[in-house]
């Protein structure tokens, strides 16, 4: 048993801490979020330069041979700065599909671009009526000669406005909620028939509704086995969940620190409000929630390569519990900041919003409680 | 002891229901309070009620109250909540109005009460300051006597909807040397068009602009605008806060919100079934409804006590705490119900001038569009009106005697 980070991981963290401090201060982030583009390609280029985008790929695929713990380190720092750039969709999700199931040609074609920052992905899995069930698909991919023709509507695809490519889940056979008959495709976003409606999200990112209208893709676009992609999707989304749990930990850490700091500065009744025991204990509870969340993030991350059931139990435990912690810490942070916590001027509101939306991504508290119960 | 309506009360319910159906301005729809409403929208129903004589039901009849019993007032708010009516704002009707008819002089009553009843005059509340929130008595805005005027200097904050206000009621320090901070405060009415008053909007986390900073620089106010006695303002402020708390429970509106939540959760599908038939979710909705049922009876008990001659006392703090907790839980569950479509930043918020990324298209179901912003906005309720921590302090001191 070893809870130490390697020297390389410490270096990565230090580098990112510096980068986030220098390039992601609150005023800068606010400006970026309010801008038309909503992100900064130059930050993405800098992440490529630092080797962050290539970290979890093997050396033979053109990466730096890291793993899930490296992504955890990265995402925690991103969470601290509320970084909006699409690391999870591109590196964790698209990267995960390619690593686990990509052909040599697919890896060759896409991983180099991910590592050098030129190729950006979004993961189009959710549907308007799917509600966290990856198998509940109305999007279809029908065989047409040698090709596939995609039709359907994907909802709230995070990072899609910035993406050059999409990873798309679609039904190649079977009925709407069948576990069999699901396939995964990589689709060039500029392909004929891909229609997007872009919008900002309430937590400072950008997303799209993505419509596929008779989009033809070649058989080379299929990732993994036709019709049998659900276990692969579950594996990759579990990896994405672990990464986002780390992000939530980073955001909770900052939200807690800011709250404690505010309670030191803010005076009422002649003393800093942090002197009131009723607030002290609540900030202690926030801290405990945060530490428990870090532990579950470690558990989930370190179980990603275990057998399926062990992995799913750990990931659902983390996502369910951290979903609760994220709500708790976000709400208490606003309450203890008082009226100032309600203003758009302070950073704390942005942390609260990100921590709120975190719960609704890749399955909320109830969804993962159910999965945990089913596996127990 | 019973909970049934008398035949007279049933008849009353029919009467107000038909009145609301016939007269509630159709163009307001059933969306309730929204920040993109115009001033005219905000006061549209108030003006109709003013003409009917129903805008200030809780006031004494001598000042334009309806003389309704607490039960009738309860029926009235229930019936308005059925259509999610945009009720008269509280600043005039529930806050300064009762202070004026209780502590004001005849001139003040004659000058101000008609405009409050009719909805002609828009009032705002100048209480909180950047350094005086929960510790309101530490407020620093000063009113210095200069001949037949007070000269007011200072800064107020969280002045809700002051961008529309004609008048404000302000707490100002008139005796900086008083033995206790509470003793040197006065309650002053201020025409918001007076030179030296500047209202600056504050953007909130939901993207809206419902509160403001109000800067007061050498604002000259005639001494006639002092309510009651100089340096006795704290007494009036406490009286007002107790009134504010009794309306703050929002029971009828929360009941309507639960109905809406059930509708939404009936439309959302989980594993092929309506979300509402999912046990985990249904349990949370029932938990909320049970808490709300308890609060409803607690409020009715409080109202009955008032009718028996007891003023709203410290137990109204319970209504504030539970009422706001329920409102927050309701909006949290609504956001949970809408799932992924809680994530987009919808047009009504992004379309504020100067904001990038306006979003013109409807994305997702209509009921999802306000879910996240409403949840964020409702975090204010446990902070304003005396934070819920302050309410607990009040109960600790006044009820437990600790």
Automatic annotation (TrEMBL), chain A:
Pfam families: Acyl-CoA_dh_1, Acyl-CoA_dh_M, Acyl-CoA_dh_N. Keywords: FAD, Flavoprotein, Oxidoreductase. The keyword Flavoprotein applies. GO terms for molecular function: acyl-CoA dehydrogenase activity; flavin adenine dinucleotide binding. Signal peptide: none annotated. Residues 122-215 form the Acyl-CoA oxidase/dehydrogenase middle domain. Residues 243-359 form the Acyl-CoA dehydrogenase/oxidase C-terminal domain. The keyword ATP-binding does not apply. It comes from the Bacteria. Residues 6-117 form the Acyl-CoA dehydrogenase/oxidase N-terminal domain. This is Acyl-CoA dehydrogenase family protein. It comes from Erythrobacter crassostreae.
TrEMBL record, chain B:
Residues 124-203 form the Acyl-CoA oxidase/dehydrogenase middle domain. The keyword Oxidoreductase applies. Its cofactor is FAD. One of its GO terms (molecular function) is oxidoreductase activity, acting on the CH-CH group of donors. It comes from the Bacteria. Pfam families: Acyl-CoA_dh_1, Acyl-CoA_dh_M, Acyl-CoA_dh_N. PANTHER family: ACYL-COA DEHYDROGENASE, ACYL-COA DEHYDROGENASE FADE29. This is Acyl-CoA dehydrogenase family protein. The lineage of its organism: Bacteria, Pseudomonadati, Pseudomonadota, Alphaproteobacteria, Sphingomonadales.
